[in-house]
Amino acid sequence: MSAVLSSCSATHLIAGKISNDGVMISKTDFIFNQKGTPAYRSFIIVRNDTLQYPIYVYRFSDQEYSALWMRCTHQGTELQASGDSLQCPAHGSAFNNKGIATNGPADSSLRSFPIKISNSEIFIDLRKQS
Ligand code: FES
């Protein structure tokens, strides 16, 4: 049984490891030290020079994540993440942690990438969208 707790913390940016097909991150990227106790971030953001927009990776559980392209589906502004949701600074659209639009003017979901999970790593497949 794990003593790791769920918690919010400041936004955590990582570069990940880029390959031809996608980007690899580690499950440990979600762990931070909270007053001496390991805890999980609810999300992290993957940002590096090869990505036109960052990717928001939300952790639902050890085996369930979402990976969302942080590009507003209204007019393409880069989104801002806070906790369980993403907001657009341009005209106020909002999206939940599965990429579904919860506030307009955007009316379509964010691009979402397939994820493959191994014991310790999470591979985000950038070749296709789900
Ligand atoms: S570009 Fe995001 S709401 Fe208009």
Structure explained in plain terms:
A hairpin with a 3-residue loop joins strand 14 and strand 15. This protein is mostly beta strands and 130 residues long. The model is unreliable at 1-8 (pLDDT under 50). It is 0% helix and 43% strand. It has strands spanning 5-6, 13-14, 17-18, 22-26, 31-34, 37-40, 43-46, 55-61, 64-69, 80-82, 85-87, 94-96, 101-103, 115-117, 121-125. The chain is globular and about 40 Å long. The protein has one domain (5-125): Rieske Iron-sulfur Protein. The chain binds FE2/S2 (inorganic) cluster. FE2/S2 (inorganic) cluster binds at residues 72, 74-75, 77, 88, 90-93, 105-106.
* CATH architecture identity: 3-layer Sandwich
Which CATH class?
A: Mainly Beta
Overall shape: globular
What gyration radius follows from the Cα positions, in whole Å?
A: 15 Å
Largest sheet: 4 strands, mixed
Helical amount among residues, as a percent range?
under 10%
Number of helices: 0
Bound molecules: FE2/S2 (inorganic) cluster
Span from first to last CA?
33 Å
Going by CATH, what is the homologous superfamily? Rieske [2Fe-2S] iron-sulphur domain
- Contiguous uncertain segments of 5+ residues: 1-8
How much strand content do the residues show?
35-45%
What CATH calls the topology is Rieske Iron-sulfur Protein
Give the spatial strand order of the biggest sheet. 2-7-8-9
What is the string of SSEs from the N terminus onward? EEEEEEEEEEEEEEE
Structural class: mainly beta
Number of domains: 1
Mean pLDDT: 90
Give me the count of strands.
Answer: 15
